[in-house]
Design a protein that fits this description.
The protein contains 14 helices and 9 strands. The radius of gyration is 27 Å and the shape is elongated.
């Protein structure tokens, strides 16, 4: 089974804390994993950023929601206990504690900024929209970021495919330099772009000092899958240039046979398809600009530690 949505954790948390004891988040996670029948794989599943487990994130936000609704009290940092309101919720035998249910409490409504007069779970405010549903705020934020990045990558690749051969040559040079290859744009420009066959070919310095070289071939294929014969021909051309390393770039895709081939040969050849090309453009800020920056801040626990 997968890790359930964060609303599914709220009722089990109230049941665990019903004994009146104080529980740390660590203790809650230990008790809930067994109570909810989660496997080791479930517990290791990460949120989109990969910096925290989905399980830990959802337990945390469940305690936040219950605390904002007055069903839990925060005894001290990272430690909670059930309140009278929490016991009342348990006594009502709800099958699940949901956002809609918690919106009956003014404290939670103020936090959530939803419109309780609607009588639905549909949130009204930006915060409510972010935290509504199966995802916690961090998960939704990261999911939105990934969606926007995927959309940008698709747009970038489509634009590159429609570019002229001259622009494509210039673009690849700038990308390689941004990645740390070829020295300066001027140096790389002299080394790359020899064939002019709707793409570029050439030898470029692997580092600024030119201690080694990399043979580059880039073709602006559109929907053609680049197969093994093309890659094999590229590998053969390395001998003529006395190169041990090569990078082959395409705006299209490589066949699995082509990818398997480069894993078996002695030469080191890296294949970069259209999808990876777009990702590299985003990563190294080539052809993209920052539209907006958000600073996500968190509590500085050290600030509140007694000296």
């Amino acid at each position: 089974m997968a890790v359930p949505d964060f609303q599914s954790f709220m009722l089990p948390i109230l049941k665990v804390t019903a004994d009146g004891k104080e529980y740390s988040l660590v203790e809650l996670r230990e008790r809930l994993s067994g109570l909810m029948g989660l496997s080791d794989a479930d517990l290791e599943e990460k949120i989109p950023s990969g910096i925290q487990s989905k399980y830990s994130n959802r337990v945390y936000w469940s305690t936040v929601y219950l605390s904002k609704a007055g069903a839990l009290s925060r005894v001290r940092r990272g430690v909670v206990a059930i309140t009278d309101r929490g016991r009342q919720l348990l006594a009502q035998n709800h099958p699940k504690i949901t956002v809609k249910l918690l919106r009956q409490f003014p404290e939670f409504t103020e936090f959530y900024k939803g419109d309780s007069s609607e009588g639905t779970d549909e949130p009204a405010s930006p915060l409510a929209k972010v935290t509504h549903g199966v995802e916690t705020p961090e998960e939704r934020l990261e999911s939105s970021f990934k969606e926007l990045r995927a959309s940008l990558a698709s747009e970038l690749l489509d634009t590159v495919k429609k570019s002229t051969p001259a622009f494509f040559e210039d673009f690849v040079v700038k990308l390689l330099v941004a990645m740390g290859y070829g020295g300066s744009v001027e140096d790389a420009g002299r080394a790359v772009g020899k064939s002019g066959d709707d793409g570029i070919d050439g030898i470029i310095k692997e580092d600024k000092l030119g201690l080694d070289v990399v043979y580059v071939q880039a073709k602006k294929w559109t929907d053609t899958v680049v197969g093994r014969p093309v890659v094999q021909s590229f590998a053969g051309s390395l001998e003529g240039h006395r190169a041990r390393k090569g990078v082959m770039i395409t705006t299209s895709t490589f066949s699995q046979d082509a990818r398997d081939y480069v894993q078996r040969i002695e030469k080191k050849i890296v294949l970069i398809d259209g999808k990876q090309l777009a990702e590299l453009m985003i990563e190294y800020d080539v052809g993209v600009a920052v539209a907006k920056t958000y600073k996500l801040k968190k509590l500085d626990n050290d600030f509140f530690e007694p000296e």
